[in-house]
Each structure stands twice: as C-alpha cells, then as structure tokens.
Amino acid sequence: MLFIAGAGTGKSMTFGEDVLDGLGVRLLTMDRPGMGGSTHAEGRTVASTAADYRAFVDGVLGESGARIPVVANSQGAVFGRAMACLCMTRSLILVSPADEISYPSSLSPNEFNVLAFTARKNTSEQSTQEVIWAVL
C-alpha cells in the first residue's frame, strides 16, 4: 500500500505498522520533490509527481505498472487523485483531504476539465464519469 503524506511530513509520517504487519500489508512512502530528504524539482507538476510515485512503487516492487492501494492524506490527496485519474491505483482512500479535494465544487472549471480529459484519455475499463466520481 502506498501512503502519500500531506505537506510538511513526507515519509516521516506513517500509520498502523503493527496492524498492517499482522495483515501482511507493506506500507510504502517517500518524500515528494522538495520535502524531507528530497531535492526540489523545478517545473514539478501534479502529473509529474504522480509519475514520481509510480516510478518509486515500480522500483520498490521490482515490477512495472502494478496497481496498488493508495492512501493519501491532506495535501497529498491531490497526488493520490492524480494517480487514480491516470489509472495507477487499485483503490484510493483520501484521509482528511485538502479543501479542493474534499469539496470538488471549489475546483475551477478548467481544473475540472483537465481531470475529465485525463480520466477520459486514460480509461478503457470504466466510463469517464465513473472514474471522475470515484476519485472526487
């Protein structure tokens, strides 16, 4: 399971290791560019950060493209949502997501259109509407 922490915590924030270990679940987490031990990445976008998480998971698991459960907290929710829109997750749980994630009506029409286009472009198994509402 991939955990995407909010701003200011990075990989130092984890949860439930004793319970997860007992269930045979491995919690993966990393510092986003510019957080914790990671260097700043000029020109970083939500999509490029989602790709960073994808590359991290691929490297840790030693396989490419595995769709795993994702838990995203606070400001990390935007990256979890991007991974889901790009069909990189098996499931997504948002924990105390940032306001623009908790209340999708606060998204500007352009931001919503970008999400809709991304979901439409990257989805073959589900309708665009299913993907958008599952993520939002």
Automatic annotation (TrEMBL):
<dbReference type="Pfam" id="PF12697">
    <property type="entry name" value="Abhydrolase_6"/>
</dbReference>
<protein>
    <submittedName>
        <fullName>Alpha/beta hydrolase</fullName>
    </submittedName>
</protein>
<dbReference type="InterPro" id="IPR000073">
    <property type="entry name" value="AB_hydrolase_1"/>
</dbReference>
<dbReference type="GO" id="GO:0016787">
    <property type="term" value="F:hydrolase activity"/>
</dbReference>
<feature type="domain" description="AB hydrolase-1">
    <location>
        <begin position="2"/>
        <end position="109"/>
    </location>
</feature>
<dbReference type="InterPro" id="IPR029058">
    <property type="entry name" value="AB_hydrolase_fold"/>
</dbReference>
<keyword id="KW-0378">Hydrolase</keyword>
